Amino acid sequence: MPLPAVAPFFPPAPIRHMQMRTRVHLLRRLPDWLTILISFVILLAAWQLLVVIGGYESFILPAPLDVAQQFVLVASDGRLLRHSLVTISEIIPGLLIGFFVALPLGYLLAKSPLAERLISPYLIASQAVPIIAIAPLLTIWVASTYWSRVLVAALVVFFPVLINIIAGLRSVPAELYELMHALKATPLQIFRKLEFPAALPIILAGLKVGATLSVIGALVGEFVQPKSQGLGFLLVTARYQFKTDLVFVILFTLAAIALSLYGLVALIERRVLRWQT
């Protein structure tokens, strides 16, 4: 005797919706490091799958294991650390110079309409010129190879930070200026007590962007001015030797440097802007 057909059971829509929300809530409660680890594992699996399905040669697209082996090789013989320290020694001064030059100029442009009319067109026009075209001129004008690379990084950092400084200073509400004038505050007190703290979140957001762009600037400087040192030199050498696995190692190293600088600025932001919470 055949058994009666049983219709499949589907939970009602409200229950399904509640279950979905529970799963999303559990995912959101995962620690940040675990979320990053899971996404990295998924990325490696997709990368390996692409290599297997596509049948690529290692000089075209190396597998993750090939890149890991190359990383162990260049890390053990000291090449990766030596070249990374050279690049970092160019990135950090370039970031600081770009920021501290942009800070007073941004204040001037934000407070003076005349200065904005005189200087802004030239600043905007300078961004139409690719940095790769300016870098060779710096190698001619600056005798030091090191400082020419630093200046390239500073130029890349300068404009985004400048724009954020101007936007931050102009975002201060007019009512707060009226309050400070009613309290008979001096211009220096207005800057210290009102303008700088109010603009600081936007300024630090610009510094985050500048921290990542400084890596690109230093790398461009090393492309234009190779001196057997730096990750840019190592990258060019690996490209000409068709060592694609070494190219991936260098790219991951550059990404790690950029993430570290971004995280450092984010840490400073949390410390400095603690009053916001």
CATH topology of the largest domain: MetI-like fold
Strand content: under 5%
CATH superfamily of the largest domain: MetI-like
Number of strands: 0
Which structural class do the helices and strands define? mainly alpha
End-to-end Cα distance, whole Å, is: 71 Å
Helical content stands at over 70%
CATH class of the largest domain: Mainly Alpha
Q: Tell me what the CATH architecture of the largest domain is.
A: Orthogonal Bundle
Shape: globular
Q: What's the number of helices?
A: 11
Number of domains: 2
> For the report, how would you describe the main beta sheet?
none
Any idea what the radius of gyration is?
26 Å
**Helix-strand sequence:** HHHHHHHHHHH
Low-confidence stretches: none
- Give average pLDDT, whole number: 85
Describe it.
With 277 residues, this protein is an all-alpha fold. It folds into 2 domains: 13-61, no CATH class; 68-276, MetI-like fold, CATH 1.10.3720. It has 11 helices and no strands. The chain has helices at residues 13-28, 32-54, 64-76, 79-111, 113-126, 131-141, 145-170, 174-182, 187-224, 231-240, 244-272. The N and C termini lie far apart (71 Å).
List keywords for this structure.
277 residues; mainly alpha; MetI-like fold; 2 domains; 0% strand; globular
